């Protein structure tokens, strides 16, 4: 005891002497004024930093002994400019918090002048350079440098920060290995290196850092096996190793982590079975092992996880039945087991005693009926069971599941009629029951689904007349194809003002196509293979998008008696005028012709100006415009010929990862060029796969179209595309901006990364990428963002064609960019 006190007093003496020797001559007032002078204080947070009052009363300043600055507390004060060195020169300082500002520059290496510092939080700025050395700050307990742009390796002597309890370097650009000396930090409780480019193995001697409670090493490039020594960290509460390149099995030593509540190992290359010892972890709240190559059966021992709320085992190779045990986990909220090889029936009590809000068992080999009690929680909002072999009727109980929002039960063997209340669910916006064996009429039931945007009843055995309405003013996609509907297409379908896609092919419809089908936003109309008669109504060819489409492509109406598509006079009788871009006089058979959509009032001189500007664009990822045929009613655009060029939407399924990334990078380059190098900036408007040509080398080319720039109603034309950012939807006065392009690009990325249409994407990836794209574009740097992708492009093309890790890298980069951008909303999203 006395010995300890004695040691401490020596330590304090030392500090004292040290302070006397190094700090003499510093005037803290002068230092503070120099801090103020060198920081850009937009929000006037330092307004009372005025020598006429004592600096101990200044905003953000706390004093020790009424005379020395001990604490500088200025988080989120909108401070910008270079981080002042003087802030690190207060001899009595214990705590500095400048987090969440816009400071840039390097953190000084030599922090000996703030020797007593215990808390340093510089997170969420734009700091560069390397991690400062630990040797000068022996008392530091908290070091938060997360979400900056720090680079280089973690210093070998990081262990000199031997008193640290909290270390957060997440969201930077650090590379190299974790130095062995980290194990010197035996008091460390919170350890985050997530979202950097660190590699090598996770050090085995992490097992020596016995105080660890939180480990976040996700979103890096760690390889090798998970060290079994992690199982010795008995205080561990969170373990997150996601998005790495870890191989081997889940160590059975994890069974000793009895305080663990969160175990996240998703998106690695783990194999083997779930070790039985895991079922010792009775405190687990969330278990995510998805996107690995784990196999074996899912054990009934899951019954041990009585606190479990989230279970993600999707995208693995699990087989056998879904254990009954899952039905008896009272807190289970989210259960996602999709894309495995599960068979047998869904446990019949699933949902009954749980608290389910999300259930996704899609793409397995499940049989039997959909259990009655899935919605017993009354909070189920996602029910995703598609691509199984489920049979029987849709349970009547789902009619009362008023919380449902997204229901995808297509591609099963469901039969019978839809239960009565199933079409009056108030919150459902996405309902896909296609490719089942449903029967019965749909016109004699109540449809009241005010939120419905997407409805597919395609490929069932439904019959009878079509209903007048589905009780939604928001319907965008309606697919009723492949049934036996009869009678006319109700005129009221013309009132679906938001409709983008209407498909009622392969049915028994007859009569005339109603002229009311004048939906300004309609992009896809397929009424083929019915018994419709008569001319295509004039109103249809006036639809901004469809009119042009019908004039050159009649497949949409093939199989009917319609002839309007072939001889649409409106286009043939127009007087055409050829406008060739200057310097591009040659039009030959290699020129690719596209029909322009509504190009507005052509005599407008601004329009000509815009056209001329587009013609001057010369970028390898933008299709050159050569000429335009125009009349007072419409126009045809002539583009350069892309050898072997195919629409991205056509070739999408055949693109391997390399090529997908090449497309993403190409389009990113095109957008960057159009936004940043063209003056004024060119807005693409709607970045859809249909606008992208992929040539034989896999290079992507963006095809610009001509917006009618002369009036609001013309700019509204773009609203026809689902890819246009929501902020441009609905309000006709909103013009398109760079942000809406980035939003469109975000959606395109989702398709490229997941191989699925964004509308099909689960797990909030759509929201998060799009959020990111939307909020970050202006504050962050397209430059940086494109460059990280281009960097990966190079590493990718060298790799093997199946190289899925390339996509991981791309995702990781998106992620780290998201995290390192101080103004961006990051919600910890997760792909696939
Ligand atoms: C932050 O500073 C920027 C300029 O750097 C200014 O435009 C913005 O309004 C400020 N925000 C707040 C909340 O003061
Ligand atoms: C400091 O405060 C005094 C009195 O409140 C005021 O007159 C003076 O202008 C202030 N000085 C600065 C630099 O803001
Ligand atoms: C650092 O500051 C940020 C933002 O002000 C805060 O969210 C975070 O918790 C702080 N870090 C630590 C370790 O206290
Ligand atoms: C760090 O700074 C202190 C005081 O400014 C000085 O005495 C010391 O030599 C410096 N250390 C290094 C390695 O430069
Ligand atoms: C962040 O730092 C980078 C590199 O120093 C710089 O290019 C960029 O403009 C900075 N961004 C902000 C918002 O300060
Ligand atoms: C480990 O910490 C001690 C102080 O506790 C320090 O003297 C030593 O140099 C550190 N070693 C390394 C490798 O960082
Ligand atoms: C990841 O680490 C491996 C070595 O383990 C290395 O070959 C590869 O280039 C790294 N990838 C990235 C993107 O840093
Ligand atoms: C992933 O790990 C494997 C085997 O350890 C290695 O060959 C490969 O280069 C790693 N890939 C990346 C992108 O790190
Ligand atoms: C758990 O720890 C004990 C001793 O602390 C050890 O004997 C046992 O092997 C460990 N269990 C596992 C599964 O590693
Ligand atoms: C899944 O398991 C089957 C049979 O055990 C095996 O043939 C297949 O390769 C596995 N797939 C993956 C992706 O591991
Ligand atoms: C699904 O199960 C059936 C038998 O129930 C079997 O014939 C079929 O091969 C299974 N499919 C897959 C993909 O495992
Ligand atoms: C019309 O579209 C179909 C399918 O999209 C395509 O196969 C066909 O070639 C097109 N016809 C013309 C004349 O462009």
From TrEMBL:
It is found in: Membrane. InterPro entries: Kinase-like_dom_sf, Leu-rich_rpt, Leu-rich_rpt_typical-subtyp, LRR_dom_sf, LRR_N_plant-typ, Prot_kinase_dom. SMART domains: LRR_SD22, LRR_TYP. SUPFAM superfamilies: L domain-like, Protein kinase-like (PK-like), RNI-like. Residues 1-25 form the signal peptide. It holds the Pfam family Pkinase. Residues 552-818 form the Protein kinase domain. This is non-specific serine/threonine protein kinase. It comes from Rehmannia glutinosa (Chinese foxglove). Its EC number is 2.7.11.1. The keyword NAD does not apply. Keywords: ATP-binding, Glycoprotein, Kinase, Leucine-rich repeat, Membrane, Nucleotide-binding, Repeat, Serine/threonine-protein kinase, Signal, Transferase, Transmembrane, Transmembrane helix.
């Amino acid at each position: 005891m006395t010995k300890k006190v004695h040691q401490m007093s020596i330590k304090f003496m030392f500090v004292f002497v040290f302070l006397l020797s190094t700090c003499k001559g510093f005037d803290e007032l002068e230092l503070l004024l120099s801090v103020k002078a060198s920081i850009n204080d937009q929000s006037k947070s330092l307004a009372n930093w005025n020598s006429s009052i004592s600096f101990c009363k200044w905003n953000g300043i706390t004093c020790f002994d009424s005379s020395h600055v001990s604490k500088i507390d200025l988080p989120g004060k909108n401070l910008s400019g270079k981080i002042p060195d003087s802030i690190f020169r207060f001899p009595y300082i214990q705590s500095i918090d400048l987090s969440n500002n816009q400071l840039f520059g390097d953190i000084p290496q030599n922090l000996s002048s703030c020797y007593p510092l215990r808390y340093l939080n510089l997170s969420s700025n734009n700091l560069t350079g390397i991690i400062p050395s630990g040797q000068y700050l022996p008392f530091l307990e908290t070091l938060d440098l997360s979400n900056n742009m720090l680079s280089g390796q973690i210093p070998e002597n990081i262990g000199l920060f031997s008193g640290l309890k909290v270390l957060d370097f997440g969201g930077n650009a650090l590379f190299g290995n974790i130095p062995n000396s980290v194990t010197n930090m035996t008091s460390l409780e919170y350890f985050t290196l997530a979202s950097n480019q660190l590699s090598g193995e996770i050090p085995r001697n992490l097992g020596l850092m016995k105080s660890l409670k939180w480990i976040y090493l996700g979103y890096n490039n760690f390889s090798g096996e998970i060290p079994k020594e992690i199982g010795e960290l008995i205080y561990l509460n969170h373990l997150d190793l996601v998005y790495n390149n870890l191989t081997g099995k889940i160590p059975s030593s994890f069974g000793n982590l009895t305080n663990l509540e969160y175990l996240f190992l998703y998106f690695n290359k783990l194999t083997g079975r779930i070790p039985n010892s895991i079922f010792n972890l009775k405190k687990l709240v969330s278990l995510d092992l998805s996107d690995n190559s784990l196999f074996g059966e899912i054990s009934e021992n899951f019954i041990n996880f009585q606190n479990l709320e989230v279970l993600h085992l999707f995208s693995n190779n699990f087989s056998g039945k879904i254990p009954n045990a899952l039905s008896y986990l009272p807190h289970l909220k989210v259960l996602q087991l999709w894309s495995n090889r599960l068979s047998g029936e869904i446990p019949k009590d699933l949902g009954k005693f749980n608290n389910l809000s999300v259930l996704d068992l899609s793409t397995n080999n499940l049989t039997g009926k959909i259990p009655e009690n899935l919605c017993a929680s009354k909070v189920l909002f996602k029910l995703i069971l598609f691509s199984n072999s489920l049979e029987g009727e849709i349970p009547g109980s789902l009619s009362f599941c008023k919380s449902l929002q997204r229901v995808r039960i297509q591609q099963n063997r469901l039969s019978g009629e839809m239960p009565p209340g199933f079409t009056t669910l108030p919150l459902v916006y996405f309902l896909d029951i296609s490719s089942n064996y449903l029967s019965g009429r749909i016109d004699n039931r109540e449809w009241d689904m005010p939120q419905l945007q997407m409805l597919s009843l395609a490929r069932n055995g439904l019959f009878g007349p079509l209903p007048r309405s589905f009780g939604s003013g928001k319907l965008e996609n309606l697919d009723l194809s492949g049934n036996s509907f009869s009678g006319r297409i109700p005129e009221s379908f013309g009132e679906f003002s938001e409709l983008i896609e209407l498909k009622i092919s392969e049915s028994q419809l007859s009569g005339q196509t109603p002229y009311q089908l004048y939906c300004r936003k309609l992009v896809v109309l397929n009424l083929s293979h019915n018994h419709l008669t008569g001319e295509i109504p004039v109103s249809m060819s006036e639809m901004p998008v469809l009119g042009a489409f019908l004039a050159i492509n009649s497949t949409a109406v093939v199989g009917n008696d319609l002839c309007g598509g072939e001889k649409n006079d409106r286009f043939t009788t127009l007087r055409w005028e050829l406008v060739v871009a200057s310097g591009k006089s040659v039009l030959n058979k290699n020129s690719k012709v596209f029909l322009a959509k509504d190009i507005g009032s052509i005599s407008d001189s601004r329009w000509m100006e815009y056209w001329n500007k587009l013609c001057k664009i010369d970028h390898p990822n933008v299709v050159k415009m050569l000429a335009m045929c125009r009349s007072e009613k419409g126009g045809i655009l002539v583009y350069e010929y892309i050898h072997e060029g195919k629409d991205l939407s056509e070739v999408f399924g055949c693109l391997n990862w390399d090529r997908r990334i090449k497309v993403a990078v190409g389009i990113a380059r095109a957008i960057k060029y159009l936004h940043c190098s063209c003056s004024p900036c060119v807005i693409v408007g709607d970045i859809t796969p249909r606008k992208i040509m992929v040539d034989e080398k896999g290079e992507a080319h963006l095809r610009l179209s001509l917006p009618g720039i002369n009036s609001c109603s013309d700019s509204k034309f773009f609203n026809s595309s689902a890819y246009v950012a929501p902020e441009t939807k609905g309000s006709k006065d909103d013009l398109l901006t760079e942000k809406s392009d980035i939003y469109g690009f975000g959606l395109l990325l989702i398709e490229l990364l997941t191989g699925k249409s964004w509308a099909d994407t689960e797990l909030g990836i759509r929201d998060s990428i799009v959020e990111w794209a939307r909020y970050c574009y202006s504050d962050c740097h397209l430059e940086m963002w494109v460059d990280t992708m281009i960097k990966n492009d190079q590493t990718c093309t060298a790799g093997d064609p199946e190289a899925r890790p390339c996509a991981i890298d791309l995702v990781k980069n998106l992620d780290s960019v998201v995290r390192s951008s101080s103004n961006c909303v990051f919600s910890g999203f997760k792909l696939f």
